[in-house]
Amino acid sequence: MRVFVTGASGWIGSAVVPELLGAGHEVVGLARTEASAAALAASGAEVLRGDLDDLAALRRGAEEAEGVVHLANKHDFADPAVSNRAERAAVETLTAALAGSDRPLVLAAGVAGLAEGRPALESDPNPAVGPDSARGGAENLALDQVAHGVRTVSARFAPTVHGAGDHGFIAFIAAAARRAGVSAYVGEGSNAWSAVHRSDAARLVRLGLEQAPAGTRLHVVAEEAVPTREIAEALGRALDLPVRSISPEEAVDRLGPFIGTFYGMDVRASSEATRALLGWTPTGPTLLADIAAGAYPGA
Length: 299
Prior knowledge:
Blueprint: E1 2-6, H1 13-22, E2 26-31, H2 34-43, E3 46-49, H3 55-63, E4 67-70, H4 80-98, E5 104-110, H5 138-144, E6 151-157, E7 160-162, H6 169-180, E8 183-186, E9 192-197, H7 198-211, E10 216-220, E11 223-227, H8 228-239, E12 243-246, H9 248-255, H10 257-263, H11 272-278, H12 287-292
Parallel strand pairs: 1-2, 1-4, 2-3, 4-5, 5-6, 6-10, 7-9, 8-12
Antiparallel strand pairs: 9-11
């Protein structure tokens, strides 16, 4: 299959591209910079220059592909509305290019905010609807296009996709711990996050592209619930820092309003249905094992 990948040189995309190539697929990766283009070319992928705002490039990539994996996101934590608008416009463009073809579109989504008081399930609908909602309501927008001949598959990622070189949420929290001289958790630290190793995430994206039926919601989750207190304790050991509780207000001061609030949330999710559907069994290290092994040494 000829697969167009957005976010191809990002943290998850740079694992998905070799996973697809290793399975015999051709890959065309969207590259915003010369460095990204060079890295993609070196991996054996074709390069399409452009970025998430270049709707013409997105349209061309999708029209010339047999499948699309959409992983790019602006992640503008200072102004989430910018990210939301860009995500919605990108998904509108990709689905329009794929309409009526039954070609697959695997798009990244998240498990946060899907359920309260229990792990989120694949059957839980996403409450984000409309252009002003989280991610611009792109998951629901894309799933609605199943009726118009797009084989949409939503890949709902755990809040942390971890591994050596990770620059996501755990790296932010580790960096804040270094700056403050203490590794912190919010309140009692009993709220927990689901997690997945990057290699397992990449394999599930490939399986979803190849096999998942139209309208499928996949949970890219290996560990259902890792308590944030245990995350803070593991970072404390790895960084040789004391560990203590902080208030929600202090978390926001340290990490900013978006990540500080998110760190205090309970983001648990099950992947039981995903595993049964695709025969996916995670084999990568756990989050705490990655932290202990030094995956965040320079944070």
